[in-house]
Write a structure and sequence with these properties.
The chain has 120 residues and is an all-alpha fold. It is 76% helix and 0% strand. Helix 2 crosses helix 3 and helix 2 packs parallel to helix 5. The longest helix is centred in the C-terminal third of the chain and has 28 residues. The radius of gyration is 20 Å and the shape is flat.
Length: 120
């Protein structure tokens, strides 16, 4: 084995270890990538739910918080995750869209109070 091949193999193993560690921290398993269309939708919903709960929980009512936490709980276990469908992800997307609208309205009010004009 020449030096270049050795370095590439070492780099690949190092990158794979880092990626596996990151995936484990995100509570994602390799089995989740089998059905890519549905799983991609569910993984996006999981990411949005985590971000919304972590950074914008004060914009959520108790029902929405319960829905997002329930979705994350179901995504954490393989048996319950296999029962999730696209409609569950759509519910998460709707809640996150509501929070985004509230964030935009809050930012728009702050800018108009300061006399700044917002442009999109």
């Amino acid at each position: 084995m020449d030096d270049l091949t050795y370095m590439l193999n070492a780099r690949t193993q190092k990158d794979t270890a880092k990626t596996d560690a990151w995936i484990a921290r995100q509570h994602i398993t390799a089995k989740q990538f089998i059905d890519t269309d549905l799983q991609t939708c569910l993984l996006q919903a999981q990411k949005m739910a985590r971000i919304t709960i972590q950074y914008h929980a004060h914009y959520l009512c108790t029902y929405n918080t319960t829905v997002l936490n329930g979705f994350l709980q179901k995504m954490a276990f393989g048996k319950s995750r296999s029962k999730l469908r696209e409609q569950h992800a759509c519910a998460v997307f709707r809640i996150c869209a509501q929070v985004n609208r509230k964030l935009y309205q809050t930012a728009d009010r702050r800018c108009t109070k300061k006399g700044q004009k917002t442009s999109l």
